[in-house]
Amino acid sequence: MGYPHAPHPKETVVLSKYFGEPEARTYAGWVARGGYQGLEQVIGMDRGAIIDLVKASGLRGRGGAGFPAGLKWSFMPTEKRKPHYLCCNADESEPGTFKDREIMRWTPHQLIEGCAIAAYAIQADVTYIYIRGEFTDAYAIMERALAEAYEHGVLGPKAKGPLRDMQMYLHRGAGAYICGEETALMNSIEGRRGNPRIKPPFPAAAGVFGMPTTVNNVETLAAVPHIILRGADWYKGLCRSNPRSTGTKLLSVCGHVRRPGNYEVEMGFPLKDLLYDLCGGMRAGHELKAVIPGGSSVPMLSRDEAEACLLDYEGVVEQGSMLGSGGVIVFDDSVDIVYQVMRLARFYAHESCAQCTQCREGTAWTVRILQRILAGEGETRDLDLLLDVADNMTGKTICVLSDSCAAPVVSGIKKFRSEFEAYLHGARRPAVAVG
Amino acid sequence: MPLHDTKVYEPVFTGTRRERLDEMLSRYPTKRAALLPALWIVQETRGWVSDEAVAEVANELELTAAYVKGVVTFYTMYHQHPVGKYFIQVCTTTPCNICGAEGVVDALLEHTGCGELGATSPDGRFTVIEVECLGACGFATPVLINDEFLETVTPERVPEILERLG
Asked: How many Cβ atoms sit within 10 Å of the Cβ of residue A375?
């Protein structure tokens, strides 16, 4: 449902069905709503069969990359020689994205069940749920739910069968966007600075503590119990456009719409309907200018592109961007694109872990050049300079934070060049003081 | 630590806090992995992470103080100096920025008496900082006051919110 708003008839509610119902947070409330049946069903099932079921459903990673979840699980060794780990990525920090927070706040047991099923399938002894440090309320709710899950024998000493030896812990982050990158997340769990690691080795070979590890996003894991219970064909049927994108997606919509919030729709849902029907359109007297469709790390779409865009992994690529995490940032005609591109670049400059030169220097210089332009001190060649810096930041670093900073710069200049030129030619008054 | 500082350092990890640390250590296969939780316990207890606390944590986890300091400085939520009784974090990243977050910052700076970002008010009660994306973009502007997460804060709501803190 479109929490914090009433459900909209065009939504397809699966994960978000109980958002807004505090009773669903408790073990009893969750069981009364059909919870933990998926977990019950998988115990005793062949592990390979569980992974095949998830593969067949077409579930893809909801954290941003869209990698097939079942395939990722299948990379884990089938013959267990060392401890295996599952890490649930609840470090949700991508500007524009706030779906995992709602899953944890309203349906913590949905996530615990998904984690337990995944941990069982990949033979993980320990699951760490890595929650960003700022999510104080989500952490407290998850902590209570996990204690209840142990108490009722969902897992741990009071559980029966293979779940007896399963351990699940929350691990609190401490303020670092980069820890949402899976290898940085593992370093952070190990008590290190959150610097991403060079891949390979991939986590399934050598992950957290050097052991075989799978890292999945909250929304991905929360979808798993539903797939187990209702089957791969049902999940595959939740698709409006490209059959390679299946299931429902939680879309976090923020910025200049009348009803911001989370909306759950089938893959392939038109962005236009999301903006104008579900979210109630723009504020009075304003028109749509641009949309960043998948969290701040993806290229922005012009109004025409946005209105033609279908929201699935392929549909957004067709319009020149990416579905990413499903964080939809909406800009109306009041937005100064140059200023907002600078603001996004400032975010990445702040969050760069600084181990790669292209990122450490590139993000900082991008901010400085944009601030110079905004202060009315830019030169025409600054746009080429920005694009050149962006080119040097793309595809050249250990992780993609650097590429993410380049995305709004390149797409902003490409699609709204006249706004940049207005500052350069003195047609627009400086927006920031000379710094 | 200045040479003339004769104040005796009271260890953090005693009593129930020692038990909590031991419980944390049981969750991981290495001592190092308990570092972030240990630093959280320090900050909850002392309000910030001093160099003496860094040394204590290093000793507990068999790490060097330099290593621990390196981790403390990486993560923005660990305070490296004392802050106000109420530590106020306001999100000003793009989605909140376009929804008026700057006005919330201005109202907080004015009503707390902090004057500028990062400074503590003269009465020692407040510190206000800007923070990058609190992950609640649909509830602009989110504000985190210590562990209390507030949504849809507007400049108009600021006086009432501060008053409630007492």
From this structure: 15
Helix, strand or coil, per DSSP, at residue B4: coil
Q: How many CB atoms lie within 10 A of CB A79?
A: 5
B69, B108: one domain: no
Is residue B138 in a domain? yes
Whether residues B30 and A260 touch (CB distance < 8 A) is answered with: no
pLDDT digits (tens, 9 = 90+) for B7-57: 799 999 999 999 999 999 999 999 999 999 999 999 999 999 999 999 999
pTM beyond 0.90:
yes
- With a cut of 70, which residues of chain A have pLDDT below it? 1-2, 433-435
CA triple A365-A133-A27, angle to 5 deg: 145
Whether B96 and B26 share a structural domain:
no
CB contact under 8 A, A98 and B27: no
Q: Look at chain A and report how many structural domains it folds into.
A: 3
Residue for token pair 């079921």: A53
**B80 CB within 8 Å of a chain A CB:** no
Which residue of chain A is at minimal alpha-carbon distance from B38? A191
Task: Check CB contact under 8 Å for B78 and A174.
Answer: yes
Nearest residue in A to B37, CA atom: A172
Q: In whole angstroms, what is the distance from residue A366 CA to residue A372 CA?
A: 10
Q: Domain residues for A109?
A: 22-236
Range B16-44 burial, b when 16+ CB lie within 10 A, else e: ebeebbeebbebbeeebbbbbbbbbbbbe
- B69 and B94 housed in the same domain: no
